[in-house]
Amino acid sequence: MADVTTGEKLLFLTDEQLRQGIEAMFFAYRGFTADPDRILAGMAYGRAHHRAIHFINRAPGTTVNNLLVLLGVTKQSLNRVLRTLIEDGLVESRVGMADKRERHLYLTEAGQELERKLSDAQRARMRAAYRAAGPQAVAGFRQVLEAMMDTEMRRKYHALKENGA
Amino acid sequence: MADVTTGEKLLFLTDEQLRQGIEAMFFAYRGFTADPDRILAGMAYGRAHHRAIHFINRAPGTTVNNLLVLLGVTKQSLNRVLRTLIEDGLVESRVGMADKRERHLYLTEAGQELERKLSDAQRARMRAAYRAAGPQAVAGFRQVLEAMMDTEMRRKYHALKENGA
DNA sequence: TTGGAAAGTCAATAAGACTGACTTAAGCTG
DNA sequence: CAGCTTAAGTCAGTCTTATTGACTTTCCAA
Fold first, then answer.
1. Global confidence as pTM
2. pLDDT tens digit sequence for B142-163
3. Is A51 helix (H, G, I), strand (E, B) or coil?
4. Which of residues 76-135 of B touch A (CB under 8 A)?
5. Which nucleotides of C are covered by protein (CB under 7 A)?
């Protein structure tokens, strides 16, 4: 019976429990993106723009290459998004001081305003979920999510936390 | 100071904490979909096919309309995916007994085999994350995810659980 | 000074989604 | 029975986000 691990652990590692976790992730992620998606639907922007804006706000001065890796997209993909954001005056691209090949990205006033609008909506939902579930649940939530990341992404996640802390 | 809620709750409801939660969701979801995506990349299928297969397996005999709402896509979108799956012999579509307008969807042997392959990979990651985080964390994880869903989706999530339990 | 890295661009392609319009078949209801 | 509604399926066109591949410009560094 207790061939793999303790009885307590066996209880929640059944296929059924794991499937429920998978479905919870699926449905929750839909909720997670729903509010920003709604806001962006009106403008000429999509989820890709939101992600770029989020991470530029989070790590101001980040380079294009940095952002590329963080978002997990190709240069060409990001460039299209970035170009419209720069043209529309939401993002500023400054030539690097030390290395002039690099471009450092910053949100303009207008960019920060949109960022606030988007993240306000997303944080409101997050806050409600956190409140409903309680502090202990939140700690567990964070632990499981972190364990679910690829090693490389976990590294980047922590790097961002240092930044914002 | 304690104007909104208790001190204990204030601690983890700072903007910074919420932002970290948002980023954790983003990075974890990437990990969550990475394994099935890799498997499907070789074949002519994508994430949309995976989702259809998952839910048909989960609720065998479900109707097209049911699946539509569950996945949150349009009829035309689902139909393209479903058509290829039926053509390739992974999904079977049976005319309804009670209502002949309805089509009930089932996985064939081949469909079940692919489902197993995909969900094995996804469950392996889930299992590893659950093990690493521990039982208490898992309970919290589930609570927060559930609180994050839209009401309608939470209803559907519970309906599926009844089904599979 | 030359090789390689960072950024940017052009072109072609694909998956996955959308709207809108329309057909077919079948159920329901007055 | 006639007529409205519902479930499914299809055709056509569009959009966003992503891809690969090829190429240029700029510039750092050995």
1. 0.91
2. 999 999 999 999 999 999 988 7
3. helix
4. 119, 122-123, 125-135
5. 5-12, 15-21, 25-28
